[in-house]
Specification:
The complex is a heterodimer of chains A (317) and B (236).
Chain A lengths: L2 E10 L2 E11 L4 E5 L6 H8 L7 E6 L2 E2 L4 H7 E4 L11 H11 L7 H11 L15 H13 L5 E5 L7 H15 L3 E6 L2 H7 L2 E6 L2 E6 L1 H8 L3 E8 L5 H9 L4 E9 L3 E8 L6 H10 L4 E7 L3 H14 L1
Parallel strand pairs in A: 3-8, 3-9, 6-7, 7-8
Antiparallel strand pairs in A: 1-2, 1-4, 4-5, 9-10, 11-13, 11-14, 12-13
Chain B lengths: L1 H16 L1 H25 L5 H19 L1 H9 L1 H6 L5 H22 L1 H10 L4 H27 L4 H17 L9 H10 L1 H9 L5 H23 L5
């Protein structure tokens, strides 16, 4: 089941919330929309789910045009909107039955469909409680269960973990991972770790445009800049300027400076050329100077840094 | 059709799972009961006239109160997005909600048959006129409900929805009360648009197609306006 988005644009009045974006998502992928608040993630999802109409461009879900075959498209999609809206005065089972009926699950299969999602989302202990009485974590699971009751092939989850505590987040992520094995799953988030933890592919969206697209690893490779190394030495009689000069003399090292000095240690920061590995030479140099190396670590550029870099750059434009 | 039923059942249940239905029914019966008993015991006349005169007045407040929640609440909590991304048409949702509110009103009217039955024991009642009046009241309620649901679809604030629908139904209700201030050409248009004028005809036991067309087109127009109002989200 694929989702194909072609030159999608959405204007709110004069302002473009989504600008001419195109991408394609295939079965069995967990794709994360990553972007700051207001980047156009939710708007894009709302157009895929047919809640909003696009100003320009096309969206196809399993080859069906969302504008012409809205009802058919909706049958294939399970959707958890932002903020997880729920009917708080209904109890869990009644609500899931209501969702199943609206999704036109055949009458004879409604009970088994409900049992399936109750089981999958761990709702057994609260099945007869009113949704209004449930904790946020359980409500989120009810929202997910509602989205999956008709066993859709595409799941679209808008910020599925926002507002949850760390334990609940881990549980929901586990559930997403499990679901992603058999379904096409799109989720949005502004939390980088979420993408690193769950997604096969990331689309970084900023100001309505896709600024990066790829697996979390490939993005890290692509945007890796200078190699940054921190090292901690045991304090010695040798002058720190001398050490600094010695480090800077290593080939490929562009800069070395003292970061911090305290009673027993000195911390240095070394920047080397992109793609180089200067750790061995640093080690040898330090041994040659008869110094004691306590720590050395290479800073990896995280997805978070890439995200900041990309979203900041386009702000300057 | 199944989808309309699903929405209808859910809406009706939500009326009865909150205090709304009970408060509305109790208030409705207290007010009509007062007019019924005062007429019977103080006036000593066997007639439903007073009750039928007061119900259109009560509807002015009663129906906006029933319908104000229908879409405004869904917009406020965001559940409208859930509903509108399910594989059902916007029209199904509107009709389901319309029928649920109409049923609640019909239940309220059904309770007033206690008065009709009591009267039939003590005197001779014109059942033709009574039945006509009930049909008229139900049709009038239908128009008010479609207006109320439309008003509710315009906003996410229930109070605003109540005020808008009250203003529209009040205007429809008052149209034939200002006829003396108008030139005769305009007066007949106002009279035809007035909901009370048509009710007056039906309540006399005369089921004229002119009156029926008025009610049914009123219901249809506001249901379609509601549908358009829901669809407008997509283009905003």
């Amino acid at each position: 089941m694929s989702i194909r988005v072609e030159n999608l644009t959405k204007y709110y009045g004069q302002q473009a919330a989504v600008k001419d974006i195109s991408f394609e998502i295939n079965t069995g992928q967990i794709v994360g929309f990553l972007g700051p608040n207001g980047a156009g993630k939710s708007t894009t999802m709302k157009m895929i789910t047919t809640y909003l109409a696009q100003s320009e461009g096309k969206v196809f879900v399993d080859g069906l045009d969302t504008e012409e075959k809205a009802i058919e498209v909706r049958k294939k999609i399970g959707y958890l909107p932002e903020q997880n809206p729920l009917y708080l005065d209904m109890n869990v089972i009644d609500y899931l039955r209501f969702a199943a009926e609206l999704e036109s699950v055949p009458k004879g299969e409604i009970n088994s469909a409900i049992e399936r999602v109750v089981d999958l989302c761990g709702l057994d202990e609260v099945r007869h409680k009113d949704i209004g009485e449930l904790s946020k974590g359980f409500r989120q699971r009810v929202g997910l269960a509602q989205a999956m009751v008709h066993n859709p092939e595409v799941l679209i989850l808008d910020e599925p973990t926002s507002g949850l505590d760390p334990n609940q987040i881990i549980e929901i992520r586990k559930l997403i991972k499990k679901l992603g094995k058999e379904k096409t799953l799109v989720l949005s988030t502004h939390i980088m770790q979420e993408v690193e933890a769950t997604c096969d592919r990331v689309l970084i969206i900023n100001k309505g445009e896709i600024v990066a697209d790829g697996s979390p690893d490939s993005l890290q490779d692509k945007f890796r800049g200078q190699v940054e190394i921190n090292l901690v030495l045991k304090k010695d009689s040798i002058d720190k300027d001398l050490i600094e000069r010695a480090l800077a003399s290593i080939s490929n090292v562009e800069r070395a400076r003292v970061l911090k000095v305290d009673d027993t240690t000195i911390t240095f920061h070394v920047s080397a050329k992109k793609g180089s590995d200067v750790r061995e030479e640093i080690f040898r140099k330090i041994v040659a100077m008869n110094l004691v190396l306590l720590e050395m670590n290479k800073e990896e550029k995280s997805l978070e840094d890439i995200f900041r870099q990309l979203t900041k750059n386009s702000e300057k434009k | 059709m199944n989808n309309i039923l699903t929405i209808f059942r859910k809406e009706l249940r939500s009326y009865f799972s909150s205090p709304v239905a009970y408060i509305v029914l109790a208030v409705f019966l207290i007010i009509t009961g007062w007019f019924f008993t005062s007429n019977l015991f103080l006036g000593g006349v066997v007639t439903m006239r007073n009750v039928f005169d007061i119900i259109p007045f009560i509807f002015l407040f009663f129906i906006p109160a029933i319908t104000m929640r229908s879409f405004a609440e869904e917009k406020k909590t965001g559940t409208i997005e859930l509903l509108l991304t399910k594989p059902i048409t916007d029209l199904d949702i509107v009709i389901g909600k319309f029928l649920a509110a109409l049923s609640l009103t019909a239940i309220a009217l059904l309770f007033t048959w206690i008065y009709v039955i009591s009267l039939s024991f003590i005197g001779k009642l014109d059942f033709g006129a009574v039945t006509g009046a009930y049909i008229g009241l139900l049709l009038m309620a239908g128009v008010y409900i479609s207006i109320g649901i439309f008003a509710s679809s315009l906003t996410h604030n229930q109070v605003v929805a109540f005020i808008i629908s009250f203003l529209i139904v009040f205007a429809l209700f008052m149209l034939n009360k200002v006829l003396i201030f108008l030139p005769s050409g305009l007066a007949s248009i106002f009279e035809y648009l007035s909901i009370d004028y048509h009710f007056g005809n039906i309540a006399r036991g005369v089921l004229d197609s002119r009156n029926l067309i008025y009610y049914f087109s009123g219901i249809l127009i506001f249901i379609l306006l509601t549908k358009t109002s829901l669809e407008s989200r997509r283009w905003s």
